[in-house]
Amino acid sequence: MKNTSVRKRGLIFIAIGWALLLIGDRVDELALSQGALVATYALAIASIILLTGYSGQLSLGHSALMAVGAYAAALSTNNLGLSPAIALVVAAFVAGIFGLILGFGVARLSGPYLAGTTLALAVSLPTIANQFEILGGEQGVAFDIGLPPARFGEEFSQYKWFFWICALAALLMIWLISNVLASRYGRIFRALRDNPVAASLSGINVGRLKVVAFSLSAGVAGLAGGLLVMLISGVSPSAFPLSLSFSLLTGAVVTGVYNLKGVMLGGLILVAIPEIAESVVSRIGGSEGFTVALPGFLVSALLILAVVFTPNGPGHLLHKKKH
Amino acid sequence: MIRNTRMKRISFVSTVVVAGAMLLSTVPANAADPGVTATEIKLGITSPKTGTVALSYGKLPGAMKAYFDYINANGGVYGRKINLISRDDKYLPQQAATQTRNLVLSDKVFAIVGALGTATHTKAYVAAQLAKNNVPDLFVNTGFSGFDDKTKYPTTFLVLPSYAMEAKTIAKLIADTPTLKPMPSFLIAQDDEFGKDGVKGFALAGHKFTSAPTLYPQGSLTAALAESLLAGVNAAVPAAAKPVMVLMGTTDSTALILKAAEKLSLTTRFNWIAGSVGGDANTLLALGVKPATIDGAYAASFFPDAKDSTDEYVAQFMKINEKYNKGVTFDNVVLQGMNSAMLTVQALRAAGKNPTRAGLIKAIEDKGSTFASAGLAPLNYSATSRVGYNGYWFGQLNAKGELKPVGGKVTLYTTDSTSATAPVLSTYTRKPLPKNGIPTN
């Protein structure tokens, strides 16, 4: 039964991948570029859902974990000469190790204390990055993966290449995460979230499993960070502002922090909101202040509506309707 | 099993939503050079409209648009109206990349004009594939000398002199000024290409600071950090000396440091020298720096003083600002924006009645050095150079925020970004303002 579920899940992801591949051939470069960003944000949101929704640990500084992965990817191509594909694996691995070390430090913290610690990490990122010459200061480090392979032909654009990479990485990782969450570990994580004392009495090593969840989440965030800076060909501290952490957390809450099913929708919301806002402003007109404030207003409104009407996400709403 | 079926459905819905969104945003392919129609030329700019940097540079796109509106009201460019689409990049690389890409792929602009920021625009240039699409990237508002690399940025034209040039001329000012030369000197600069270019310039000029330059991350300079930097220098220098304190940073950072000096009662302790970016007196005052603090501070510029209404360019731009940019105080940023807009109009005219992207780039290479502009330094565009202005003059600010030339007369020095050759006295004479500020080249 368990193997059947894994196989089915695998087939679903393959089907989604196939659909994305077909879509990628039929849309323009703007949509491909936006699609790559949607996939990247979806992956980052998945890392938050894994940590916050499943293991009950609140991180307000996920952008810093993404930055760790991003720097690891950039440095491993520039300094070690690794291929971009390996560099993205390194991004996930290094961020995962970083998360493991950080996890040991914060394992005894929970609630606002953990949130505060991760927030402090995100706030101090620019200063930390500027302490080390190798990180390139404010200007950062280049992360250029080069042109698409020649065998794809001259018509194969850079944007399509980015879309393929981001979509594939997101699908693979979300498939892996969904398998982990459907396994014994997923149940343990939920036990940690719902009642740590009871979990401990059941023989679960709460501290160790919290660290495992933190490390896994950091690894996924690191990969998302690597993908994000691949899209802009370089990493710098300002590419990972604190606002990114809050946006991702918003995306996770809007799509349902307790399940993975809406992550693509979360990514889509984060990419679409500014576009919708600009479109609304251009149609109805308005002052400069109105233009710049509208995206934030829309995100806030969406967040409030989500918390009021679908606190567990649209997936949970559908489930309720079904029953 | 139920869970798996549900998950399958949700995954399917997610896929359909993504697919739908992508298909909805699909637009038909455009002609080779988008952005030009029989009635319109569409240009785009990304700059910070929100966030701390917007306090200093938020006026830039509005100033450019005001000038374009003025030109449009006077017939446009060969009958075409200029439509400037402005997008907010919040001074963040990711936003700049996304917004520049949107300008090119969604708004389908003919060219990018006046983009601001080094860390932002270097990323945006690559991410939006400006080189591949041959999108002209005109009059970038950064002094990062790296943008002069034609192989890396083949469609970019700088307008500001480089930070290295600025540093070289500041070094000359210190060496040539008897009250500054014997004093200990210090540099506080941004830890990005701004500061690094500056450090390179001082090294080329052979200027040695009393202690190693202090570089701070632009986004995380706090009042506490600024106070600790100044307190450290104050403690290290004998009370009898009046050390030279060079500030190379954005105006908001410069304001933060000057306010820290106010808090520590150190405003008269130093001989302040601010670069052309940070030395914008109007913005410093607007950001809360006291008039007495800037009184006597040295500042570099390649423009006339934005308060000098006797200058024909400044006077004309002030008139345009009053009519087309209502309620906005005229300052260096507005002057800079309108000047870049005027250069853009001349470039479009030089590209001919049926402009193409390649033609626009060629026109600036061939004729850009002859464009009329408010700058007191020459423009250096050619087939091999993407450098805009290449010189500075120095003045001292007074409490009103006016920049009065050192020695009573504007003395401009020109230089380059790479050689150890000292800045030379310029004999350049600025071209007169086109009639009513409307180019007819």
TrEMBL record, chain A:
InterPro entries: ABC_transp_permease (IPR001851), LivM-like (IPR043428). This is Unannotated protein. The keyword Secreted does not apply. GO terms for molecular function: branched-chain amino acid transmembrane transporter activity. It is found in: Cell membrane. It is a multi-pass membrane protein. Pfam families: BPD_transp_2.
